């Protein structure tokens, strides 16, 4: 089957398998073949592509949600969109939101995604409390910043090369209001832009767009 990522390059012929349970994944790993886990195909690059690809989209349940503390546990195949549909009506939001809500939670951990609040609240994995992973042997290990630390650090941002991410528990962000206060600043060049960013770094979210066809001083 032809498979690609968000960038639509490269397009590869891949042997594709799905899993919806622990047992199914363990049986896939028993083959001993080299493989890579693939989420929802929204990665910019080709790190989730290969000859043997295991797609996690069918392993996609939210298993726990503490509406008082704002802590959620879900399978790796759950997308951020699916989580938002559940948590926003309860007054919670994602701690870190990347450029698309169509990525899986497993992909968010594997790529350690960042958002427009990176300068204030870090990356997605800064808010992960624990992850359950499956090793190539089929055994399951729970790791966190305090337990099995080295595996946790290697898996967060590890592009799926250390193990299979199964379940992720992470903290949410309380929604304070339905309104957004926004400030827009127009800069004439890069120097002014950098100055504006530094001057307004106290804002939780910040983003800059550059007009690449504009003429004059850069």
Q: In words, what does this structure look like?
A:
By secondary structure, the chain is of the alpha+beta class. The protein has 3 domains: 2-55, no CATH class; 62-174, Uridine Diphospho-n-acetylenolpyruvylglucosamine Reductase, domain 3 (2-Layer Sandwich), CATH 3.30.465.10; 180-218, no CATH class. 20% of the residues lie in helices and 22% in strands. It is built from 6 helices and 12 strands. It has helices at 22-29, 80-87, 105-110, 118-121, 149-155, 190-199; strands spanning 2-3, 12-13, 15-18, 36-38, 52-55, 62-66, 71-75, 92-93, 128-134, 140-143, 164-171, 173-174. A 5-stranded antiparallel sheet has the order 6-7-11-9-10. A 3-stranded parallel sheet has the order 3-5-4, covered by helices on one side. The chain has a two-stranded antiparallel ribbon with strand order 1-2. The radius of gyration is 19 Å and the shape is globular. The mean pLDDT is 96.
**Residue runs with pLDDT of under 50 for 5 or more positions:** none
Tell me the domain tally. Answer: 3
**CATH-defined architecture of the largest domain:** 2-Layer Sandwich
Question: What is the helical fraction, as a range of percent?
Answer: 10-25%
Count the DSSP helices.
6
Please trace the helix and strand order, writing H or E for each element.
Answer: EEEHEEEEHEHHEEHEEH
Mean pLDDT: 96
Major sheet attributes: 5 strands, antiparallel
Biggest sheet: strands side by side, in what order?
A: 6-7-11-9-10
Number of E strands: 12
CATH topology name of the largest domain: Uridine Diphospho-n-acetylenolpyruvylglucosamine Reductase, domain 3
Q: How large a portion of the residues is in β-strands, by DSSP E?
A: 15-25%
CATH class annotation of the largest domain: Alpha Beta
Terminal residue distance: 46 Å
Globular, elongated, flat, extended or rod-shaped: what is the shape? globular
Structural class: alpha+beta
Radius of gyration, in angstroms, nearest whole number: 19 Å
């Amino acid at each position: 089957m032809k498979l690609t990522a968000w960038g639509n390059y490269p397009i590869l012929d891949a042997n594709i398998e799905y899993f919806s349970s622990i047992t199914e994944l363990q049986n896939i790993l028993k083959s001993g073949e080299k493989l890579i886990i693939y989420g929802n195909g929204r990665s910019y690059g080709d790190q989730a592509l290969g000859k043997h690809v295991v797609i996690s989209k069918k392993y996609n349940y939210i298993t726990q949600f503490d509406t008082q503390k704002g802590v959620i546990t879900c399978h790796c195949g759950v997308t951020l969109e699916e989580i938002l549909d559940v948590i926003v009506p309860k007054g919670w939001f994602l701690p870190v939101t990347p450029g698309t809500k169509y990525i899986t939670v497993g992909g968010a951990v594997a790529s350690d995604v960042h958002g427009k609040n990176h300068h204030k609240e870090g990356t997605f994995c800064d808010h992960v409390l624990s992850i359950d992973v499956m090793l190539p042997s089929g055994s399951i290990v729970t790791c966190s910043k305090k337990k099995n630390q080295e595996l946790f650090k290697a898996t967060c941002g590890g592009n799926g090369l250390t193990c299979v991410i199964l379940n992720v528990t992470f903290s949410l962000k309380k929604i304070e209001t339905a309104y957004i206060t926004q400030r827009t600043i127009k800069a004439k060049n890069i120097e002014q832009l950098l100055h504006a960013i530094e001057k307004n770094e106290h804002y939780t979210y910040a983003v800059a767009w550059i007009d690449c066809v504009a003429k004059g001083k850069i």
